[in-house]
Automatic annotation (TrEMBL):
UniProt pathway: Protein modification; protein ubiquitination
Organism: Aspergillus pseudotamarii
Subcellular location, principal: nucleus
Gene Ontology terms: biological process: ERAD pathway; protein polyubiquitination; ubiquitin-dependent protein catabolic process
Cell location: Nucleus
Protein name as it appears in the record: Ubiquitin conjugation factor E4
Keywords tagged on the record: Coiled coil, Nucleus, Transferase, Ubl conjugation pathway
Coiled coil: 293-327
A Pfam cross-reference name: Ufd2P_core
Top-level taxon of origin: Eukaryota
InterPro entries (UniProt xref): Ub_conjug_fac_E4_core, UBE4
Length: 766
């Protein structure tokens, strides 16, 4: 030990480098290694020999600088093992945090190399050169190879995560001061990386993906001791943290429901005291998810879009090769440019597979999901003012919103939405039957009390979570939230009203794309309602809404009818354009090439519209059929019935009337258009309501679209293709007869009334 701390005593010239470092990097069992006994002896002499502590600090500083130039392709393990062995001794761990390098850098791009712990945390399967090691020539690899490589990545990441957590866990237990310095280091790493969530990110100005992911996984593990299934320590998370000079900088983040002025006033208020460790770790971990793991899922989503675009570009580029085939010089330039595109595609694919490999980790995602459940419960306690989950939550939420809620960063909700959307899309198997209650409650609560969240996309994201939770799982198993939505008392009580309320609000989302957004939102709402519709509790709820909340129900139905009318119009309009353009292209052998290109572009646009609108048409009509079957009385109220009858007659005319021939296009099935099925569902709506006399009268009084011939033509089609049973066909004939009789009675009454005498007309105009 003296040879290390005072080498001049042994005639060894100081080299300017740590003499201790090479021995620490050797295995403790090595003859020249620092074994546990020697290390323990050195630790005992920390206080009596003032040279020992600086020697250990210098050794770790040099290891850090060496490791900063390495990747996991290099021999990095001795550095990890050495640091783990050192920090097991509390005095060494505490000493390391006193290094001038411990938290020196404030530049995001260099933080992971220049701070003491940074080089250990930057080790990752996501490092640039490493991704190409796992996925060289990715275009040529089959699925089996890719999956095996991703499994290897996950094992590597799991070992790294375990080692890093072990290091940090010992450091925060080394001493109170050491713990504070470690928390400061985590906070600094997060605070300088806000740009990672910008729309366009320059990777040279932020920390690396691997570094940020390692921060997230380490903090997740630090949270595990207080995250029990019954939330017994949830009350230890103190929102007063926001007023105690919080380590996590939130001032400039977009807030859930406050403008910058209100936010500044809130954060300017200071209170005395310190925050407990659980609170500190909780807020750090929420931020780590936002700037770390959730930024990776966002990056993966964008990367997949960019790669599709790049592949299309390469395909189009390759089609131009023939233009240069007779010019060797130009062809060489062409091939060089093509190679650049293909190299870029290979790099992108390698990164995509690497991101998937790291993120599709059941073990980590399960831990991450447990943390997100704690965030959900924390938020529900804030907004309800209840001691949840011990005390139940009731809706709607209080009209007066707490300032602390309004001034929380928006990412508290955003990360829940993105996390669970990702899990339900890619890894639904990790959600067990007991893990969705709080999530369902959060979604319903904020769809019912939408004023609590300012961002319309976040509110739409809550619908998407419920929607994705209804998707059948691989193998045909029910969606992960289906049983909960049908059996959970909170859902039975509030879900349907919340969905209907947001269906209405989606008419005006406040975004520049609100017109199209509303259809996507409503499509997802329809899917959720279809999932719960077999449950008689929900049908009874809808019936009660129609009786007890008439204005609300009428608004909902009117918007539903608007949607049916619009999407059918747009679908049929697109098919008419497709029919016309396909005919012109077939018959236009001598068509000018420019005109032909314009026609083909017009056809492609109409085909895209037909696909999207037809999907909406099928779902909207199916929903109308479900509702009218259960609530014939409600759909034939005076406020609704005439609009409904007019809409049905108009679309029946479009489907079987003289203009229906314009809907015939090539390959109908690729657009999701099954005319017979759609006609059958429209007829079902008529049959659902035919027992109501005012509906019969409303059909008869439709002066624009009611045509007896359309009903006869529909009967002919239904019979020809066996679309309805004999009983249903008999009822259809009965409906036709009753409408004819109502029409005749109306006309007779008008005739009996006769002309209005001139003197009465004069009185009116006077």
């Amino acid at each position: 030990m003296f040879a290390i701390t005072m080498p001049e005593m042994f005639g060894i010239e100081p080299s300017g480098q740590s003499p201790l470092k090479p021995y620490l990097l050797l295995d403790p069992e090595d003859d020249k290694g620092v074994d546990f006994e020697l290390l323990s002896e050195a630790v005992k002499r920390f206080e009596e020999d003032e040279n020992i502590k600086p020697a250990f600090i210098a050794a770790v500083e040099e290891m850090s600088k060496d490791l900063a130039a390495m990747t996991i392709n290099d021999d990095y393990k001795p550095y990890v093992t050495a640091l783990r062995n050192l920090v097991r001794h509390a005095v060494v761990g505490a000493a390391i945090t006193e290094s001038s390098l411990f938290n020196e850098s404030r530049q995001a791009a260099t933080f992971e190399k220049d701070t003491l712990l940074g080089p250990w945390f930057r080790l990752s399967p996501l490092q640039g050169a490493v991704t190409m090691t796992y996925f060289s020539s990715p275009k040529t690899r089959d699925q089996g190879y890719i999956l095996n490589a991703q499994r290897s990545q996950r094992m590597m990441q799991q070992m790294l995560s375990s080692d890093l957590f072990d290091i940090i866990n010992h450091l925060i237990r080394a001493s109170k001061d050491a713990r504070e310095r470690v928390l400061d280091w985590f906070a600094a790493a997060l605070n300088i990386n806000h740009k990672r969530r910008a729309m366009q990110v320059d990777p040279n100005t932020v920390s690396s993906d691997g570094f940020m992911f390692n921060l997230t996984t380490c903090l997740d593990q630090l949270c595990e001791p207080f995250m029990d299934a019954n939330f017994t320590k949830i009350d230890r998370i103190d929102a007063g943290y926001l007023h105690r000079n919080p380590r996590v900088e939130m001032k400039d983040e977009t807030k859930i429901n406050a403008d910058q002025h209100a936010s500044d006033a809130f954060y300017a208020k200071k209170v005395d005291g310190t925050s407990n460790f659980i609170t500190e770790i909780f807020f750090l971990t929420v931020a780590a998810h936002h700037y770390g793991s959730e930024s990776l899922t966002s990056k993966l989503d964008q990367l997949e879009k960019d790669l599709r675009h790049l592949e299309n570009t390469i395909n189009k580029f390759e089609q131009e090769r023939h233009k240069w085939s007779n010019n060797p010089m130009q062809l060489r330039v062409f091939e060089q440019a093509l190679k650049k595109y293909k190299d870029k595609l290979d790099l992108g694919l390698a990164l995509k597979y690497s991101l998937q490999g790291v993120l599709f980790d059941d073990q980590w995602q399960a831990r991450s999901m447990l943390f997100m459940r704690y965030v959900i419960v924390f938020l529900l306690r804030l907004v309800s003012g209840k001691n949840f989950p011990k005390e139940p939550i009731q809706l709607p939420l209080p009209a007066e919103q707490q300032e602390v809620w309004k001034c929380l960063p928006e990412y508290f909700v955003d990360d829940i939405v993105s996390n669970f959307k990702f899990i339900m899309w890619c890894m639904p198997q990790i959600i067990t039957a007991t893990q969705g209650d709080e999530l369902v409650m959060l979604c319903i609560a904020f769809l019912e009390s939408t004023s609590y969240i300012k961002n319309p996309y976040l509110k739409a994201g809550l619908v998407s979570i419920l929607f994705r939770g209804t998707w059948p799982r691989p193998g045909g198993a029910r969606g992960v939230l289906v049983d909960l939505l049908n059996s959970m008392p909170f859902a039975n009580e509030y879900l349907l009203h919340a969905l209907m309320k947001f269906y209405i609000e989606a008419e005006h989302t406040g975004t520049h794309t609100q017109f199209f957004d509303k259809f996507n939102i409503r499509f997802e709402i329809f899917q959720i309602i279809k999932c719960i519709w077999p449950n008689t509790l929900y049908r009874a709820k809808l019936s009660n809404q129609a009786k007890r909340n008439l204005d609300f129900f009428v608004r909902f139905v009117n918007l539903l009818l608007n949607d049916v009318t619009f999407v059918l119009d747009e679908s049929f309009g697109a098919f008419i354009t497709i029919h016309k353009t396909q005919t012109e292209l077939r018959n236009g052998a001598g068509m000018d090439p420019t005109v032909r290109q314009q026609k083909e572009e017009q056809l492609a646009s109409a085909q895209r519209n037909a696909k999207s609108y037809m999907q909406l048409t099928n779902e909207t009509v199916a929903m109308l059929k479900l509702f009218t079957e259960a609530l014939a009385d409600s759909f034939t109220m005076p406020e609704i019935v005439q609009r409904l009858a007019d809409m049905l007659d108009y679309n029946l005319d479009a489907m079987v009337g003289p203009k229906s021939s314009s809907l015939r296009v090539d390959n109908l099935q690729e657009y999701g258009f099954n005319p017979r099925a759609l006609l059958s569902e429209l007829v079902d709506v008529y049959l659902n309501l035919m027992s109501k006399e005012n509906f019969i009268v409303a059909v008869a009084r439709d002066g624009r679209s009611y045509k007896p011939a359309n009903f006869e033509k529909a009967a002919e089609i239904l019979r020809k293709w066996s679309l309805k049973s004999p009983e249903e066909l008999r009822r259809w004939e009965q409906l036709q007869r009753r409408v004819r009789e109502a029409k005749e009675a109306d006309e007779q009454a008008e005739e009996d009334l006769g002309e209005v005498p001139d003197e009465f007309l004069g009185m009116f105009w006077e």
